[in-house]
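Possible regression after last week's pipeline update?

I re-ran a chain I had predicted before the update to compare outputs. Posting the input and the new output here so someone can diff against the archived version. Not blocking, just want to make sure nothing changed silently.
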Amino acid sequence: MDTFAALAHGMAVAIQPMNLLYALIGVFLGTAVGVLPGIGPALTVALLLPVTYKLDPGGSLIMFAGIYYGGMYGGSTTAILINTPGESASMATALEGNKMAKAGRGGPALATSAIGSFVAGTIATIGLAFLAPWLVDFAVRFGPEDYFALMCVAFVTVSATFGDSPIRGLTSLFIGLTLGLIGIDKLTGQARLAFGVPELLDGVEVTTLAVGLFAVGEALYVASRRHHTEEKLEPVRGSLWMTKEDWKRSWKPWLRGTMFGFPIGALPAGGAEIPTFLSYSTEKRLTKHPEEFGRGAIEGVAGPEAANNASAAGTLVPLLTLGLPTSATAAMMLAGFQQYGLNPGPLLFAERPDLVWGLIASLFIANCMLLVLNLPLVGLWVRLLAIPQPWLYAGILVFATMGTIAAKPSVVELSMLAGFGVLGFLMRRFDFPIAPVVVGLILGPIAESQLRRALAISLGDPMTLVQSPISATLLAVALIALLAPFVLKGLGRFKANED
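New output (post-update):
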């Protein structure tokens, strides 16, 4: 009953005119940017962080959540129309969606994508509303050693999940952890890694790092690719609406996709890619029309799109209740919270229930807005694809620079933005994941303070880290997650040598 009361209070906050406007701006920008190939919701939130620096915290976070949901929707539009996923979670949608578009059934493909996203997003948001308070009650029992162990799980799982190589993921993480050491040590008051530069005493701004790595790095990477293949836009022919048969074949995949997306998205090593491909393979096995798979089966669009949007709500569960980002966009949203001096976790539910429940309630509104936006505006999204890339990325560079200057006018800050942009370009060029750097910078100082607190309470006894059942279990999970990729790789090589 408390959850219903809290959700009703959150809905009262979310339907305030300014918050509705923030949600509308968020879903529109998220969808528009998600439609542009290669630019996902993480980059959009990173770009908007400095711009929203002086806005109301609640409204800004509602807008970021709208961008997150909108980016997930928008990515499916290009996946279906031109076989170019706007972000990685839309890759499974492209397999069947683009085949449907080429067969002149782009309308039903976009419709089942939009309606499935709405159904899955609504169910998953209800799951978030009811699961979050339970997780908060559990997290309140955590001691400093438990939180440190939880951070270790986050570090390992994020490093192992993003990218193809665990070594590269861990390297990215250690870059972020090293950047987190810069500034004044809160315990001793000594300057660390500041090299005599006064501007570095406050530490590295998450906003500057995020905009540099994601926006500037992406722009430099695109500019470095000299030869591009021209994509031909496939026109959407026929009706946008679904036939009775399409509805009959779509509703079960929508529900199954939600069942895959939400729980996997809520895991520390979740993300949207795993549930979307699981949903696709499940629909391929269960379909009554196996001959259509590979040629444009509507189930292959409905299931993955539902899983994609359900996982978006799932990633907000560990973010809001434990302060753990499990995706690049969640890491950006965590940076948004910290920009306003807010730390997601159990205390946030107690200290700022209006903000948290307003954010959760706004997700229902964002879902409705997205359904209304996506069906009639397909023609507009197709025209957005025609923006020349040089114009697009030049605009991103100007926007990123102006945003950083507005947030913190400093030559050192601009130099750091340029340096992080070059670092982001090199990481993209050599296939190092970027998200672990941001996670390392944000969670590194928190993990350090919790470790120091645990050691101070136990008078320096390191065994305190494994004396609590919770911390011992979490550290064991972290160790298994760290070793598993290497063991599996070794077994694969051993098997290949035997063959």
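Follow-up from reviewer: compared with the archived run. The CA atoms of residues 191 and 347 lie 30 Å apart. Marking as no regression found.
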